[in-house]
Design brief:
The complex is a heterodimer.
Chain A (H helix, E strand, L loop, with lengths): L13 H39 L6 E4 L2 E4 L9 H10 L9 E6 L12 E7 L7 E7 L13 E3 L11 E6 L6 E4 L6 E8 L7 H8 L4 E7 L1
Parallel strand pairs in A: 7-8
Antiparallel strand pairs in A: 1-2, 2-3, 3-9, 4-7, 4-10, 5-6, 5-9
Chain B lengths: L1 H8 L2 H24 L5 H6 L8 E2 L17 E9 L4 E8 L5 E5 L5 E6 L6 E8 L19 E6 L2 E9 L6 H9 L2 E5 L2
The chains are: A alpha+beta, B alpha+beta.
């Protein structure tokens, strides 16, 4: 004969049940509030990051060079529009020039004034270009040589039209851009399209000629 | 088994709420940033430069840098304009490679741009009309000078920027002279 054991059901006291229910609701409310606070933080941070630094939605990377593909265009995406408005930059439309910013060297390490760099560029084949070094806030770096930029007009090129610019604190022969004690650096390379414009293929070919940034040494 | 137990206990509604709230906040913050034009180049320059007048600014140096990331590779002439009750006429000469003229909206949109050719001077003559399409009289007959780009644009306000590449000390007087001939004048279209 099988036997059946019956457990007697004892309902918990009413007070304890109320406390457990209240605690459960409280935990859910706290969880909900934390979720919303975290979501608000992530929403603000992600927006600010994508506006300030860009993302694949609005920028292209060519080695260390970042290019906002719709900057200045009337049909620019909201991130590009917010970027130009919040930074106060005055940039030529991506339809008429390529403006490229590098915050790292070609190996991905941040550009910093405690290091020196070799920037090696190819012959830009008749295109007007300029290279300017700024600190991280976009300010020019004060230096005794009063030198802040090189352009297609002011560079001393190699015989084959290519060029080398050195970035560093200490004076160098040749095309030297002083970086003093600026901390993090931003290098801006601008190439104007010719008056007749560039096709998308020509633009792609131009973007392959962007300079390499090699770190030499750090102190 | 432990993973399954964890997944069973996970409140998926909270994840959904997180994604929704984060997405909505992200969009709101981005669109607020687009519409907050206090820090834009136009707002910064319009507060320090005269309106409807071409002003050649001093060479860009660390002590005299009106905008962040403003390249010191050029001399600049700026004209913040407003076409509330008038049209603007813009005239500029772009003599050599690297010279450019650009017209920007208050939000930084570059709605007109022209660069000089390598082999010849480029003369630019533009009319900027109020964006609401009001009639402001018949166009003034142009001069006999050859014009390479003659165009009429519509904009309520914005910034005209002429950029002259800085080739060094020996060329500065010549650059200054050409820049000083650029005009931005309120008047009939």
């Amino acid at each position: 004969m099988a036997s059946i054991e019956l457990e007697t059901f004892e309902p918990p006291p009413t007070g304890a049940r109320v406390v457990r229910t209240v605690l459960g609701i409280l935990l859910r409310v706290i969880g909900l509030i934390l979720t919303i606070v975290l979501a608000v933080g992530v929403g603000i941070w992600s927006s600010r990051y994508m506006v300030a630094r860009g993302s694949p939605l609005s920028t292209d990377m060519y080695g260390p060079w970042q290019h906002w593909r719709d900057l200045g265009r009337e049909a620019a995406d909201p991130y590009s529009r917010a970027h130009i408005v919040t930074t106060g930059k005055l940039r030529i439309s991506a339809d008429s020039a390529g403006t490229f910013e590098a915050r790292t060297d070609s190996l991905g390490a941040s550009l910093h004034s405690s290091c020196s760099y070799l920037v090696e560029g190819a012959n830009m084949a008749g295109l007007w270009w300029s290279m300017v070094v700024f600190d991280a806030r976009g300010d020019l770096i004060a230096n005794d040589a009063n030198r802040y930029a090189f352009t297609a007009d002011t560079i001393a090129p190699n015989p084959n039209g290519s060029f080398v610019v050195t970035l560093g604190r200490d004076a160098r022969p040749g095309n030297w851009l002083p970086t003093s004690g600026a901390g993090r650096l931003v290098l801006v390379f601008t190439v104007l399209d010719p008056a007749t414009g560039l096709s998308s293929e020509e633009r792609a070919a131009r973007n392959k000629l962007l300079p390499l940034i090699r770190r030499e040494d750090c102190s | 088994m432990r993973l399954k137990a964890l997944l069973d206990r996970f409140d998926w509604r909270l994840l959904l709420i997180f994604i929704l709230v984060a997405g909505i906040v992200h969009l709101i913050v981005t669109f607020l940033a687009v519409n907050d034009q206090r820090g834009a180049a136009y707002a910064r320059l319009a507060s320090v430069l005269p309106k409807n007048k071409m002003t050649i600014i001093d060479p860009v140096t660390p002590r005299h840098q009106l905008l962040p990331f403003l390249a010191p590779d050029a001399r600049y002439a700026f004209c913040p304009f407003e076409t509330d009750d008038t049209a603007m006429r813009v005239h500029a000469l772009l003599p050599d490679l690297g010279w450019t003229i650009g017209i920007y909206g208050p939000d930084g949109t570059n709605f007109y741009f022209s660069a000089a050719s390598a082999d010849r001077e480029t003369t630019i003559d533009l009319s900027i009309l109020p964006a609401d399409g009001r009639f402001l009289g018949l166009p003034v007959p142009g001069s006999m000078q050859a014009i390479d780009a003659q165009q009429t644009l519509a904009a309520a306000k914005g910034l005209i920027v002429i950029r002259a590449p800085d080739k060094g000390e020996p060329y500065r007087a010549e650059v200054q002279e050409v820049l000083s001939k650029a005009t931005c004048v309120a008047g009939r279209a």
